[in-house]
Amino acid sequence: MSVLRLPHSALRLSTRSITSKCKLDEIIRVDHAGELGADVIYAGQMAVLGSTSKGPIIKHMWDQEKGHRAKFEELIKKHRVRPTVMTPIWNVVGFALGAGTALMGDKAAMACTVAVETVIVDHYNDQLRTLMEDPEANKELLETITRFRDEEQEHHDCGIDHGAEQAPFYKAMTEAIKLGCKGAIAISKVI
Fold first, then answer.
1. How does pLDDT run along the chain (191 residues), one tens digit per residue?
2. CB of 107 within 8 A of CB of 92?
3. Longest dimension (CA), the chain
4. What is the per-residue DSSP string for 30-63?
5. Could you tell me if 120 and 188 are in contact, meaning their C-beta atoms sit under 8 angstroms apart?
């Protein structure tokens, strides 16, 4: 019986391809979960504040999030990535977070936006650094994440411009929301 022997370099390439596929899957899964979360947070805010003066501002940000979510749903299918099993929970928690902060007032809703978008922008920046290790192979994802990161930064800035920092208990609220978002990211990476 003869044994097929691969050169050492072929084994390295094989391991690198697997690692790259795993990392790509993780990025797409987490970003899909994040954009789904942002979508339902804005849905919750619109349910409470949609008919107020902040409604059009929230709707604009929500429309962009719907586009982000649609793109990651496309990437999930294209790259055959398993979405996080936490999707049903993120739907409920996200909507409750959006509606709950909106019930506290428009400034609290904007504080929620600032907290969530801060974590998303930082997360996207980390992913962009990873994807830059092979920019040619990751071109589509680099362009997508760069555009979305810039739009998320606009949402953050919009929240600041519309009184987020004047929300009651701004610092405590935003830190708690950031911690929750970071936890959701860590969970979604794995399951």
1. 555 554 544 444 433 444 488 889 999 999 999 999 999 999 999 999 999 999 999 999 999 999 999 999 999 999 999 999 999 999 999 999 999 999 999 999 999 999 999 999 999 999 999 999 999 989 999 999 999 999 999 999 999 999 999 999 999 999 999 999 999 999 999 89
2. no
3. 78
4. HHHHHHHHHHHHHHHHHHHHTTSTTHHHHHHHHH
5. no
